[in-house]
Amino acid sequence: MRTRLPALWRGLPAPIRRAAHQGLSSLRNGANRTVQAIRDGRRAAAEQAARARTAWRAHRWPGASPSGPVTVVGFLGAVHGLGEGGRMLVRGFQDGGQDVRALDLSRDVGFTVDIPCESPAPRPWERGVVISHINPPELLYWIGLTEGREIYRRRHIGYWAWELEEIPEDWLPAFDLVDEVWAPSEFAARAIRAAAPRRVKVTAAPYPVYLNPRPAADRARFDLPAGAVVVLMAFDLRSTAQRKNPYAALRTFHQAVSMTPREAILVCKVMGVEHAPQTFQDLQALTADMPAVRLMTQSLSAQDMAVLTASCDIVLSLHRSEGYGLLLAEAIWNGKAAIATGWSANAEFMDPASSVLVDYQLTSVRGDGAIYTQGQWAEADEMDAAAKLARLIDNDAWRQALSKATAENRHASFQPRAWTALMKTLLPGLNWPA
After folding, report:
1. C-alpha span between 241 and 281 (Å, rounded)
2. Of 25, 300, 353, 424, which has the highest C-beta tally within 10 A?
């Protein structure tokens, strides 16, 4: 039997049907708003609970023991300086006989994973020490993402690097998440220490560069002329061209080769091209009429980069500031003549016997956007740099004397016993082999 309701509905006057529709619509909208309010309330409650869990787990426990295993957190699978720094810490603790865990965060921040992480991840029940080799912005993001699970009741050491004399204000909340802070240089440590609360100890703990390979030169692999003096400069555009200052190095090289009859070429190894395409296009335009300059953009592993460094004679950096200066340290470890701006962290391991430091003037930071906005850094004296570089190109004996002196460099980065002794002092609770 067919229902008569549709016919009765159609028989009602239009104003009544319209009012009924409006009433039903109002009821539906009210119901939808109620449902949405319930969902919003549940979401807010869940977020509040997550924040509470994060705060609880990130709470610094005075009884957290600095014992093993040691977990290194960082961009361990990515090919760049931060990734290599984290991998060096892993190798350093392994070389010291420690049980090492590792967490690779490369994918979390959009980095390509090019290097597999061979150390196992920490197990949930393990305690020990966590060294997060990421700067505060990434640390705050990671702690929020994981709700602090990875640092819960573990001793947490933040390993932070900064290139200026004052750290950014947005780093300050990260002090609440760490028991102490390490930095790769005393230069960086001073900047962090000046802003740290009294309870947070800040210590310079340089990288164990002595564990890096020392391969033989292979110029044919990179199509480098056998008879020329090869100068290398390398930088990552993610670290900003303003700070790395390749333009000054290019001008200096151009001036230096005009001062010597020796054949010389400059290999300009550039990383992070996709992150700053306009800057790279500017470099291409600048070097288009410089046949002695070669731009190299292919991705190289740490081992391949070591071969490239071994295949060169001189490493050049006219940076405005460095928080460590990994390329320069690797150059010294490989027995290469290194010439660089004589200010900031690199001056701590570039001793006059094995390195050449360029004169400079301190100037106000400018033109670097959101990363470096205030403070001071160095402008290298390009005339002084060109004269010293020309002498290095021209004088084989001087380069050989510098190379020989690198073996006597006493900085902890190049001395296994000194580096391990520093780690034993910083983490006495670990079971260090005799």
Report:
1. 12
2. 300
- Which residue reads 């350093």 in tokens? 92
Residue 285 to residues 34, 232, 233, 368, 386: CA-CA distances in angstroms? 61, 19, 18, 21, 22
Q: In degrees rounded to 5, what are phi and psi of residue 358?
A: -95, 140
Domains of the chain by start residue, with CATH: 70-206+417-426 (3.40.50.11930), 219-410 (3.40.50.2000)
Q: What SS3 class is residue 294?
A: strand
Closest CA to 317 of 264, 377, 255, 245: 245
Respond yes or no on whether the N-terminal peptide bond of residue 124 is cis (omega within 30° of 0).
no
**74-100 residue pLDDT tens:** 999 887 788 899 999 999 999 999 999
Nearest to 320 by CA among 269, 247, 383, 250: 247
Length of the chain: 434
Query: Minimal CA–CA distance to 153: which of 132, 179, 180?
Result: 179
Q: What is the DSSP letter of 98?
A: -
Residue the block writes with tokens 């928080």:
323
* Pairing of the two strands 129-132 and 70-74: parallel
Q: How far apart are CA 52 and CA 47, in angstroms?
A: 9
The tens digit of pLDDT for each residue in 224-265 reads 999 999 999 998 877 788 899 999 999 999 999 999 999 999
Rounded distance between C-alpha atoms, residue 329 and residue 11, angstroms: 91
User: Does the pLDDT of residue 6 top 60, yes or no?
Assistant: yes
Q: Are 200 and 180 in contact (CB under 8 A)?
A: yes
Where would I find the beta strands (DSSP E) of 272-402? 293-296, 314-317, 337-341, 355-358, 360-364, 376-380
**Distance of alpha carbon 74 from alpha carbon 104, whole angstroms:** 5
